[in-house]
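Quick note —
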Amino acid sequence: MSEKIVLITGASSGIGEATASKLVAEGHKVALTARSEDKLTQLVQELGEDFAVAFACDATDYDALKDVVERTVMHYGRLDVAFANAGTGVSKAGTEKGDPKQWQKMIDININALLYTAHASLPHLRKTQGQFILTSSVAGRMPLKGSIYGASKWFAYGFGQNLALEMAQWQGRCTTITPGMVDTPFFDEPKPDKLAADDIADAVYYAISADARANVREVHVMPTQMDS
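Predicted structure written out below.
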């Protein structure tokens, strides 16, 4: 497979960081964005400036995110893949006992940042007949009692299905990743018996490695060890 230029949001840790490392190891080049400039700078140093570039921004700021996309294209000359990975959860579960302020932050990241990434990147992906990848969740494929987080991931899942049909009009591809629980900084306590961020990085690599005739529409990854 020829070298691909991949933009990753939420790239400073967890799934985003693991995916950047995986793709560079497999011969691709990445543009990284997240709010933490220090972490991004360190990651670029680890991956090498010939293979990675970083632009710090808040993905919920449309103008800033669009600027990142434009700077990525200016730096590399094109964009082949956009991976909308930025996401967050809430500490207070449920609807009645939930915190509307936390909901607002989560919706901004899990929904608006996803839409912003798509809107800003699609004109460039159209030029390369490229691919849009997004991180939803198993929580977006099943009902969870009172889960506002799950509902935000239902949106992400549905959006991915709809976007795949839209992109197919110009031979673009869209892949929705739906992981089960992943051991990342998303959680306060380690989850060593669950998926690793590297497992999701492998899923992203699988999706972009498919032949152009094959649109990997969804990759659903669950831990082998399930709760009883």
